[in-house]
Input
Amino acid sequence: MVARRKVAVAGVALSDCGRVDDATPYALHAQAARRALADAGLDRSLVDGFASAGLGTLAPVEVAEYLGLRPTWVDSTSVGGSTWEVMAAHAADAITAGHARAVLLVYGSTARADVRAGRRTGTLSFGTRGPLQFEVPYGHTLIAKYAMAARRHMIEYGTTIEQLAQVAVQARANAALNPEAMFRTPVTVDEVLAGPVIADPFTKLHCCVRSDGGAAVLLVAQEYVRDCRTSPVWVLGTGESVSHAAMSAWPDFTVTPAAVSGRLAFGRAGVRPSEIDFAEIYDAFTYMTLVTLEDLGFCAKGEGGAFVEKGRLRVEGGELPVNTDGGGLSAQHPGMRGLFLLVEAVRQVRGDCGERQVRRGDGSLPRLAVASGTGGWFCSSGTVVLGAD
Output
């Protein structure tokens, strides 16, 4: 039996993020890609696999052309915010099978700048065809879907609005340690609750920021690790799952596809949730963090509120630091944020995070991490377990 190739993340990078008024999405893709290759210390000629979504008519063909790449393996899977964890899973499988040696995942968006310049509106329609045609006439917006799911959890399990607010408070506490975060000023539960209501029960600070920015991740086969300037972070296990398109087809608003993708990823990695040192979780809204923690197995179903209210998510003093850069709630959120989760997870495992660096109880660097992305309105999930060895 032929031994399976191991797959490592060799390079990660962000483009300029936050408020970027003078760049195109293509330029942010290129900036992040160049920085990730430089981070790895590898030449782009090694890259024979490419994955991108969300830009161009023929993604990833247009972006690859812009970057001067001619890949022989491509992926344009688009399942919302979880796209990048799903793509990482596909890329790892391709490298393991020998179909690629180095796969570059890239994303870039000027979501904030486009609204500011009037190139797009603040709320984009996902269309009116297919199953969505039965929801669009009633004005059921994206945020309303998340808010309705949160309210169901509150009714079902007694989760309080104060507990949801704690997610925002702790994300901001982590962002305060990140010099690149958009918003770093600490907030209190009372301040979160006092904000304008966006969609009941969410006030403004329950919702992610709108930013510009890009990210890139380079995965390579194990034989190229020796040529890298960085320490490898290994892909130990992955999982992906889809649930529903229409809210009426969602069996339980309190259970997300992460319950499946997480179980698969942990099982394939051969680790338990209790062994994870920190987690990067998609957080377009506070409820996403809370319910995903439950579905990944960090606490029992219905106990997410009690879990988050005790400060467990903080880098400083938290039992399970979550969204260590400040997450989409405070650091940056340019649209499909899943690739940013992988960048932060890799940086933490490598020990590159400065003031916000996670440490284990004995002061050592973290060994195991999980990045879990969510797409649509809990329509899809991708989970990746990463490790130092």
About this structure: Residues 41 and 229 are 5 Å apart (CA to CA). The chain has a mean pLDDT of 95.
